[in-house]
Amino acid sequence: MALVPQTALVTGAARRIGRAVAEALLADGWSVAAHVHHDDDDVPAGATRIVADLAAADCAQQIFAAIDAAGLPPVTLVVNNAARFAYDTFGAASADEFDAHMAINARAPMLIIAEWARRHAGEAALAVNISDAKLAAPNPDYLSYTLSKYALAGLTEVAARALAARGLRVNAIAPAQMLPSGGQDEAAFEITHDLNPLQHGVTPDDLVAALRFLIAQPAMTGQTLTIDGGQRFLALLRDVQFLEQQ
Predict the structure, then answer these.
(1) Distance between CA 71 and CA 65 in Å, rounded?
(2) In what order do the strands lie in the sheet with 31-36?
(3) Is position 1 within any domain?
(4) Which of 7, 25, 50, 121 is the most buried (most CB within 10 A)?
(5) Cross-strand bridge partners of residue 130
(6) Residue 2 belongs to some domain of the structure
(7) How many Å apart are CA 196 and CA 186, to the nearest integer?
(8) If we measure between CA atoms, which residue out of 43, 40, 39, 57 comes closest to residue 11?
(9) In this predicted model, what pLDDT tens digit does every residue of 135-165 receive, in sequence order?
(10) Which one, of 82, 76, 92, lies nearest residue 38 by Cα?
(11) CA 11 to CA 113: how far, in whole Å?
(12) How many domains does the chain have?
């Protein structure tokens, strides 16, 4: 049975991919708890803004307390989308940057899924972690970010195994680059976006379609949907955004 829309928690919902996901879920009839980092961050019309610092050890309690205070229906969908994405590479990565990536990209999703599961009241429910297709063919660029996404992939597998008997599913979506990132301008993005065997750049709509599939697929847990146009087959030596510089 597909999930019946109740409340969907989307982290990092103020902009970019998180905002696109929140807007799509609102259109599908979900109540959306749109997590943001700052008090003045905007959220899509119709969503409930939830402010929390994902680097805080009590971020999950803050988020769910705010959802309770807003009087929203039970959370039956969690989309762990928010992520830190700062450049470093092998041999030039600091302990502080590594810890900052792990706190937001891996620890916060772990805490959110654990709190969500603790509150689970018997409905079918789903958590989706937004990973990265570069894990299928890694390179040293964005090292701390990449390692934190490996941790998130491990969380997906472990949490799925731990929660399956309770009817809670945990899956992941691993997209290739969908929007300009880092210091990349629009022209550079256009050069590299379709750099894959299918010559089809991944878009936020592709991610939303994958999310809708997972919502409608009650028999899938512990799986990662990689959507990259086959880019992993190329075994790129640099992050895709840097290739047009070579």
Answers:
(1) 10
(2) 48-51, 31-36, 7-10, 75-80, 125-130, 168-175, 224-227
(3) no
(4) 25
(5) 173
(6) no
(7) 18
(8) 43
(9) 999 999 999 999 999 999 999 999 999 999 9
(10) 82
(11) 12
(12) 1
Q: What is the pLDDT of residue 20?
A: 98
Task: Give 213-234 pLDDT, tens digit per residue.
Answer: 999 999 999 999 999 999 999 9
Residues facing residue 17 across a β-bridge: none
Per-residue pLDDT, 245: 53
Domain hosting 87: range is 7-242
**What's the residue count for the chain?**
246
Cβ burial, residue 68 (10 Å; 0-12/13-18/19+): exposed
In a domain, 45, yes or no: yes
The pTM is what?
0.94
Q: CA angle, 94 as apex, 93 and 97 as ends, to 5°?
A: 95
CATH of the domain at 209: 3.40.50.720
Distance between CA atoms of 77 and 113, rounded to whole angstroms? 10
User: Residue 45 has what pLDDT?
Assistant: 98
